[in-house]
Amino acid sequence: MKRFFAILLILAMLPGLFGCQKAIVIEDVNANGLKWGNTLATEQGAWVALYGEEDGRTGLILYNKETDQSRFLVEGRIFLIALLENKIYFKYDGGSELYCYDIAKEDYGLLLEGVMAYQIRGSIIYYLTDVHGNYLNTYDLSTREHGKISVSYTVDAFWLTDDALYYSDDTKGLLMVRPHETERDRILYQGEFVLCRDVVALEGEDVAFIGMNQNTGLNSLYRYTAESDTVTELLRGSFDHFNLVRSHLVFAEENTICAMDLSDYQVYSWGTIEEEYSFIEIMSDCVIYYVDDRPYLQYYPDPEE
């Protein structure tokens, strides 16, 4: 592996803004609306939509990693950000309204009310309200029609992959799966005093997810192997969330960026964060961490050739 290369970037200190006369157009039909585990930053190619501070203001920022330039869009404490094609979806901290910012038009408006958590796939927004039941709410962006998907248990949290809907019922400590092709719920994993979350698709039908022990407060990283229908605990620690990056499960253990190779389950260090940060996001080629409200960017090492 090449020598570790890191770039520390305070977005608030970026020297320039995008040209004001030129509209920004972002198009990527293969992008997903939200990566679970990330709440303050989301990416689409070289573009990153994130919460941060610029010129003394905090709010929604659109940043381009290739040009090192940013644009401040909306002021306020913003989270649950989704970037899909030329739209940014977001919520205000403490609110239940979902807003949509049109990047080309440089304007935003209210899209849905009563949204506690959401994810976008294609033209459909899947979301939860503060009233949980054995269903998931849907909203079609193209037809503006509302709907519901019925499931067998109470949906307290959910995650979507290309193949299935995964959801948890916190009172049962379960992680359930509802494959689209069978329309059938089943218990994927049940751990005593364990809350499951952050499901990430691996190769084939395999997934990885976090299970938090409510007694110890520690998190475990699990892998579900579809062929053998088994769940294996890969590691245990104080990390909050993870992501799949270059066939590695990447997570932050205190101030170390760790990467577990899925081929042999060995854990390597991909860098050290010197500052004491309050929150960290795991991105495809970097981590974005926050010192107060200021975001810093640090790239992973270059892959071996």
Please provide a written account of the structure.
- This protein has 305 residues and is an all-beta fold.
- The protein has no helices and 28 strands.
- It has strands at residues 9-10, 41-44, 47-54, 57-64, 69-75, 78-84, 87-92, 98-102, 107-112, 117-121, 124-128, 135-140, 146-150, 157-160, 164-169, 174-179, 186-190, 194-201, 207-213, 219-225, 230-237, 242-245, 248-253, 256-261, 267-272, 279-282, 286-291, 294-299.
- It has a 4-stranded antiparallel beta sheet, with no helix packed on it. The chain has a 4-stranded antiparallel beta sheet with strand order 2-3-4-5, with no helix packed on it. The chain has a 4-stranded antiparallel beta sheet with strand order 6-7-8-9, with no helix packed on it.
- A hairpin with a 2-residue loop joins strand 27 and strand 28.
- Mean pLDDT is 87; it is low at 1-21.
What's this entry about, in short?
The protein has 305 residues and is an all-beta fold. The chain has strands at residues 9-10, 41-44, 47-54, 57-64, 69-75, 78-84, 87-92, 98-102, 107-112, 117-121, 124-128, 135-140, 146-150, 157-160, 164-169, 174-179, 186-190, 194-201, 207-213, 219-225, 230-237, 242-245, 248-253, 256-261, 267-272, 279-282, 286-291, 294-299.
